Amino acid sequence: MQYEFIEPRFPPCSEEAGKSPLCLSPQVQTYSVLNEAECHVLAAVITQAHETGQSWASRTRYAAGAQWNVNQQFRSSKNLPPELAGLSLAFEAMHTRVQEDLSALGLNPRRHSLKLVERQCLVYQKGDHIGDHADDSALVPAKDSGMPQWHVVKPERQIAGILWLTSQASTAERPHEFAGGTFRFNSLVNRESKLPLDIAPKAGAMVIFPANPWFRHEVLPVLAGTRIALACWWQVLPLAEERIEGVS
């Protein structure tokens, strides 16, 4: 199936206005990063930490100028410490995978490097979700027309990666499964049906995409079970001039 972008609205004077997305292709790929057994071990560590009170309500920023705070009508997931035992290996695997994918993101691996700027460990249980959003921006009404526009609030977030540790299933009858919780790209729609791109999370799979409004997305409510995911954000940096001398 072929997908196309729904172009985001930026303030006319902003640097983002009229820009093409970092990735020129609206086709989003998933990659296998961990095996099922590795995911089960990590999911058990995270679940135990959550059940022993080590989690906290996820915060969000849903308007430019607003503080990062809890708004469970918009986002009801829980965060856990990314330093939990064993997670460092998973985060390292994510970093390796995204470095291997630079070309697919429209970057030249001989001219660009990635700096990891943020990590999160996320748990979604029955009813949990996060609304439509962009990872680097907030959507606010324009002063003149009132039409919502995207304002960058986290400029260091340029590339996003999500690694799932539990799998979506229709009934979530087995451990390490959940029902619902689809990952939906609302800004990527099927050319014929105009329906958004949905990704069914699978343990060990990772999705990588630019963290801007061209790739706004949401997590639909979990209907049963526990949805566990790791998230990373990277900043794109130019390589030092001396390292790219002679590179055309």
From TrEMBL:
Gene3D superfamilies assigned to the protein according to its UniProt record, in alphabetical order: q2cbj1_9rhob like domain
Claim: Nucleotidyltransferase is one of the keywords in the record: no
Protein name: 2OG-Fe(II) oxygenase
PROSITE patterns assigned to the protein according to its UniProt record, in alphabetical order: FE2OG_OXY
Domain Fe2OG dioxygenase, chain residue ranges per copy: 115-236
GO terms assigned for molecular function: dioxygenase activity; iron ion binding; L-ascorbic acid binding; oxidoreductase activity, acting on paired donors, with incorporation or reduction of molecular oxygen
Known cofactor(s): L-ascorbate
Keyword Ribosomal protein: no
Record-linked InterPro entries: Oxoglu/Fe-dep_dioxygenase_dom (IPR005123), Pro_4_hyd_alph (IPR006620), Pro_4_hyd_alph_FE2OG_OXY (IPR044862)
Keywords: Dioxygenase, Iron, Metal-binding, Oxidoreductase, Vitamin C
Organism name: Variovorax terrae
